[in-house]
């Protein structure tokens, strides 16, 4: 993921044999900050590329079960011909961890955020007095504000997953606003890694957003929520059922979308190269 082979916003997926007998294969998602418990957009891309390139052989056509660090993720995909046209992932149980957390952010003032889990922990921010919304903000503005928010939250909030204490901490931010498209119910910018903005609507982000809306009584089981990204693409989220996550009441979300293969890359590692393992510019 590091330069010169990758870049700050690149995500990757490493395929492994599954330990679980009920899964077709296992995956670890990586980015410049390390490994992730789960990645929704990465899952949609992985399934599409893996099937089209023959890297994955489903036991049942049209269905997959994937072992991730966050748990089992079930997949339905449509492949009417040569290409995978759509993928729907049935994500891990998601929930609203904490509501209405007030945090003082340098240069901004007091923000009120919700902490929600959708495979990663997110600070979910909606327009309010100290932040009017996404309009007029550049990607670099969002990154700068997200870093300040994450640093401020780290001093007062350190959520732990009730079923796996290795999953902890708020490393992602989701800045929410009204959609620009009639084909969406909301718009969001997902911040992750050190300084990355997701180009997709966010799979775990959409799951966390639905969990937040459900926890606040604004979205019910069976309803859909179409999330628009900063570049206008849309994921269709749906609350499949209500579930308990430890002491928390949450949801079983699914997220549908599509991906396309844009190229093939062969990476070389030459031990004579002093930068053979890559570098980061901070």
Automatic annotation (TrEMBL):
Please list every transmembrane segment annotated in the UniProt record, as residue ranges: none
User: Which InterPro entries does the entry mention?
Assistant: Pro_racemase_fam
Q: Kindly state which reaction or reactions the protein catalyses.
A: trans-4-hydroxy-L-proline = cis-4-hydroxy-D-proline
EC annotation from Swiss-Prot or TrEMBL: 5.1.1.8
Reply yes or no: does the keyword Isomerase apply: yes
GO MF annotation terms: 4-hydroxyproline epimerase activity
Q: Which UniProt keywords apply?
A: Isomerase
Isomerase listed as a keyword: yes
The record, for Pfam families, names:
Pro_racemase
Source superkingdom: Bacteria
PANTHER family, alphabetized:
TRANS-3-HYDROXY-L-PROLINE DEHYDRATASE
Q: What is stated as this protein's family in its record?
A: Belongs to the proline racemase family.
What protein name applies here? 4-hydroxyproline epimerase
């Amino acid at each position: 993921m590091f330069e010169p082979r990758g870049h700050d916003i690149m995500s990757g997926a490493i395929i492994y044999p599954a330990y679980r007998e009920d899964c077709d294969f296992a995956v670890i998602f990586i980015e410049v900050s390390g490994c992730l418990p789960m990645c929704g957009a990465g899952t949609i891309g992985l399934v599409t590329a893996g099937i089209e390139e023959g890297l994955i052989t489903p036991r049942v056509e049209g269905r997959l079960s994937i072992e991730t660090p966050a748990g089992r993720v079930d997949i339905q995909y449509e492949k009417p011909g040569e290409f995978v046209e759509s993928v729907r992932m049935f994500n891990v149980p998601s929930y609203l961890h904490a509501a209405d957390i007030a945090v003082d952010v340098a240069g901004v003032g007091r923000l009120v955020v919700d902490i929600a889990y959708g495979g990663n922990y997110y600070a979910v921010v909606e327009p309010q007095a100290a932040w009017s919304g996404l309009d007029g903000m550049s990607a670099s503005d969002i990154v700068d504000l997200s870093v300040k928010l994450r640093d401020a939250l780290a001093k007062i909030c350190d959520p732990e997953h009730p079923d796996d204490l290795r999953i902890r901490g708020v490393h992602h931010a989701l800045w929410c606003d009204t959609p620009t498209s009639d084909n969406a119910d909301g718009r969001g910018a997902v911040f992750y890694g050190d300084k990355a903005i997701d180009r997709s609507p966010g799979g775990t982000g959409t799951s966390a957003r639905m969990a937040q809306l459900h926890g606040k009584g604004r979205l019910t089981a069976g309803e859909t929520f179409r999330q628009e990204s900063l570049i206008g693409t849309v994921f269709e989220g749906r609350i499949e059922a209500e579930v308990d996550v430890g002491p928390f009441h949450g949801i079983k979300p699914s997220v549908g979308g599509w991906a396309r293969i844009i190229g093939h890359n062969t990476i070389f590692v030459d031990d004579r190269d002093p930068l053979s393992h890559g570098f980061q510019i901070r």
